[in-house]
Specification:
By secondary structure, the chain is an alpha/beta fold. 31% of the residues lie in helices and 17% in strands. It has helices spanning 2-20, 25-30, 87-109, 129-135, 200-210, 225-228, 233-238, 264-278, 305-311, and strands spanning 41-51, 59-69, 73-78, 113-117, 195-196, 214-220, 242-251, 282-283. Strands 5-4-3-6-7-8 form a six-stranded parallel sheet. A two-stranded antiparallel ribbon has the order 1-2. Helix 4 (129-135) links the parallel strand 4 and strand 5. 37% of the residues are buried.
Length: 312
Amino acid sequence: MKHVTTSILSLVVAMTLASVSPLSAQDSVLKLPNRPVQPGMFSIELRDRIPDDSVEGGYKIRLRSVEWAAAKTAIIICDMWDGHYCQSAAQRVDEMAPRMNALITRARNHGAMIVHSPSGTMDVYKDTPYRLRMIQAEHHEPPFPLNSWCYANPENEPRLPINDQNSPCDDPVVGEAVRRFSKQHDGIKIIGYDGITDRGQEVFNFFQQEGITNVVLMGVHTNMCVLGRPFGLRQMKKLDMNVALARDLTDAMYDPREYPYVSHTRGTELVIEHIEKYVCPSIDSGDLAEVIPGSNDPITTEPRPADKRASR
């Protein structure tokens, strides 16, 4: 009995010391691990549009092949919420979410960084390691103030080719434009070394700290948040990142009852073409699903665990 009592007392003392130890929960947060750097190169085909008076419309498609290190590549998922006042828009997100989840799973497994940015829902994730990972990144001073919205510069980006100012929702009867979301869509999993933020400064801090130079935006909506958020295409371009839009994993807010009176699908394509002309290239997301064969082979000759045991 004396031995049991002593053991219990020792446990209580240990727990008490732990509760006042400098190695508190906050310290464990500060030591939150980030992705290990892994070998591997994505083969990326960039598509943009350059001026050419000899073709109809004055622009021609240009394709360029580049190689991006997976360890220096991040995917930002923009505003893929679990609801939306526009039912048609919400349904398209429902359809896109599982495809997006399958893609980021493969990209993540190759070593790419995944940043989830469901704007306005950070309180839901405040105690998760994914949110803390972004908060804990060391501060880096940006080259210019990072505002809460990045507007188009009319000197180098004209107005969008669609009218999204009156009512961009394509429901037959448009409901009240009120918030109907609370978090990211459940079809997109947040796991591992992923991060969560909706703040431009946190994205900048983390990318600088981790050596991220290549950024792919996917999500909604192409003509609004994907372009203008503080982590969006315009901002990433201004920050001199190699930035691209995943053109097969995005959707615009556009109503065919508005100019230029085309289908919703074509309206989204027109916005993508606008981005390719004036903002940044686009890619097919499949380029992030695999790396160049051999580029992810071992870069060291560490002995196998069995060899280590045998050498003892």
